[in-house]
């Protein structure tokens, strides 16, 4: 296995104890899992409790009334969604983020990640609320591979070499440079990460096929297409460019040939200004 990739995998942060207990309970209980059992585990962790309540009341979910108790969170989102969001939330806050090896300002990068997640949620909040809720963990962690790659590059002293390669190709194809250093790109790595941390299989497969949604199974094909289109809109460096917006529209049209219909009007309505200006319908 690629040396840098192996080092990245070896340094993956463990899940917090409460999240591991929740994961083990849900996965081992199967159809016998109980809402109260989930609430009992989470309630022992005030930080996780607060995070889940904040997320449940965020634009990600768009509930019309305030969610004030864990019972409401679990009942409204569903046990699997709560488990997946708890894992995603703990990972997002579990390590230092520094994307300077990519030539990016970390705060701007995180802001773009947040807008990316908001966009995905808003796109489906009216037409497919269930899909929007399922994809929240994917949206939260879409750039996790970049964050982990960047950390390993810094620790290995290869950050300047990596950045020099990105500059050499004018930042036009970060996947090619990632492949050169790691043997795969950060989106492909995301599928591995979701499997490593034992997210639900639907999410593992959804992320595994972001770069080739046409090859996904029927169960997750719409998820994979939604993530692929969102990536084109917000991809670092090229997100929202004329070329990327052509690709985004092509993906939406390709999905339609496979009986997957997206709300194109809503998509265009909520696009960031730069992406909207470059969209040629």
TrEMBL record:
**Domain called HDOD: residue spans:** 12-213
InterPro entries in the record: HDOD (IPR013976), RNase_Y/CdgJ (IPR052340)
Give the source's domain of life in one word.
Answer: Bacteria
Q: What is this protein called?
A: HDOD domain-containing protein
Which organism was this protein described from?
A: Helicobacter jaachi
Task: Identify the taxonomic lineage of the organism of origin.
Answer: Bacteria, Pseudomonadati, Campylobacterota, Epsilonproteobacteria, Campylobacterales
């Amino acid at each position: 296995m690629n040396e840098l990739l192996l080092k990245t995998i070896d340094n993956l942060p463990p899940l917090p104890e409460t999240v591991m207990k929740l994961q083990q309970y849900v996965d081992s209980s199967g159809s016998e899992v109980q809402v109260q059992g989930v609430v009992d585990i989470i309630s022992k962790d005030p930080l996780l409790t607060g995070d889940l309540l904040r997320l449940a009341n965020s634009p990600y979910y768009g509930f019309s009334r305030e969610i004030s108790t864990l019972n409401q969170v679990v009942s409204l989102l569903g046990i699997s969604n709560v488990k997946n969001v708890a894992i995603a939330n703990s990972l997002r806050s579990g390590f230092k983020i520094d994307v300077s090896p990519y030539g990016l300002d970390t705060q701007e990068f995180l802001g773009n990640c947040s807008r990316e997640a908001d966009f995905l949620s808003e796109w489906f909040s009216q037409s497919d609320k269930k899909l929007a809720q399922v994809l929240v963990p994917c949206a939260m962690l879409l750039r996790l591979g970049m964050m982990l790659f960047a950390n390993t590059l810094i620790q290995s002293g290869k950050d300047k070499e990596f950045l020099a390669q990105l500059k050499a190709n004018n930042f036009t194809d970060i996947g090619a440079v990632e492949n050169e250093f790691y043997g795969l790109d950060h989106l492909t790595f995301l599928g591995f990460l979701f499997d490593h941390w034992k997210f639900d299989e639907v999410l593992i497969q959804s992320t595994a096929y972001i770069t080739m949604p046409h090859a996904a199974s029927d169960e997750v094909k719409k998820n994979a297409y939604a993530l692929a289109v969102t990536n084109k809109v917000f991809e670092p460096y090229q997100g929202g460019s004329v070329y990327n917006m052509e690709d985004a529209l092509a993906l939406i049209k390709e999905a339609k040939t496979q009986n997957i219909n997206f709300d194109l009007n809503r998509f265009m309505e909520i696009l960031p200004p730069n992406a909207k200006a470059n969209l040629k319908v």
